[in-house]
Amino acid sequence: xxxxxxxxxxxxxxxxxxxxxxxxxxxxxxxxxxxxxxxxxxxxxxxxxxxxxxxxxxxxxxxxxxxxxxxxxxxxxxxxxxxxxxxxxxxxxxxxxxxxxxxxxxxxxxxxxxxxxxxxxxxxxxxxxxxxxxxxxxxxxxxxxxxxxxxxxxxxxxxxxxxxxxxxxxxxxxxxxxxxxxxxxxxxxxxxxxxxxxxxxxxxxxxxxxxxxxxxxxxxxxxxxxxxxxxxxxxxxxxxxxxxxxxxxxxxxxxxxxxxxxxxxxxxxxxxxxxxxxxxxxxxxxxxxxxxxxxxxxxxxxxxxxxxxxxxxxxxxxxxxxxxxxxxxxxxxxxxxxxxxxxxxxxxxxxxxxxxxxxxxxxxxxxxxxxxxxxxxxxxxxxxxxxxxxxxxxxxxxxxxxxxxxxxx
Length: 409
Prior knowledge:
alpha+beta; Butyryl-Coa Dehydrogenase, subunit A, domain 1; Butyryl-CoA Dehydrogenase, subunit A, domain 3; three-stranded mixed beta sheet; 14 helices
């Protein structure tokens, strides 16, 4: 019988240290400033590009060159230990890249994924556009329409997207739109909107509770015309999928394929969960050191069981969540998902991040509540992990459907 091991290999250990050093020396010192400014931190992203962290090559190696699936989660944990808002600014383009990789042809992947990053001399940004003002968790109800203009071999997109990371400032927008609304989620497709395309504009920019260095805004599509080659997967594949969906509508027992948005989210949920763990770990480590140094009634407060037991629970929950993430990342990389393990990891990690950061505030007391100390920012940042890329309740729904095999409503 082989030995059980969770040891990282030498390359992964080097990457972990490399990213942690960047998070410690570049990201964390800048976190408060960019949180206050509520602007996309171009200078920090440019620094990440210079060292190769913000690049197509790094993402390709972390995803395709790693059979364990662990390199990306451990990278994200370290970076988001530095700051979640800046971390999302650096890795937000990865969601667009994942949307292209998950739904596009090999030729489209080669052409468009590098354009989500650009180069160290001229960085570019990607955005993945799914959610809408009236369709967040319910992606089957998207109103954004894509109509094919056969005479010109173009698709015409109209609608408004909401809560979009990098929305409006991105060079490459990946837009999920409805082609046949009567088929709901099965009648959707993903489209590339190239840089400078007329008709795409930024709507309102959201002023958020947390992750404020990450740009989040509406994307307005007004008669946006894109070439037929910008339909991810190609027209033949879409026609085949739509035909199956029509047949499945008449014969419910027939499978009709995955929704393009869901295919992307399934692949990225362990990575999103790893981000939450980075925030939780930052809060735990900070409050641990504080508890060892802060004295009350003549002794360090960690010598009080009330504080010590909170910290014991915090590290236990963080380690448990990380194990779920690593398992999900390995299963995802090796095509072994069985019971929505990606959703399990995100559900647990989001809860742990919110709970751990709240406990950190409690340990610091009044100091935890003021902006002079970082734990209040970590708490604000953590809450989004119960909401985006599938709320806590949506994760529960996905898991319940997976374990029961039934349509839970």
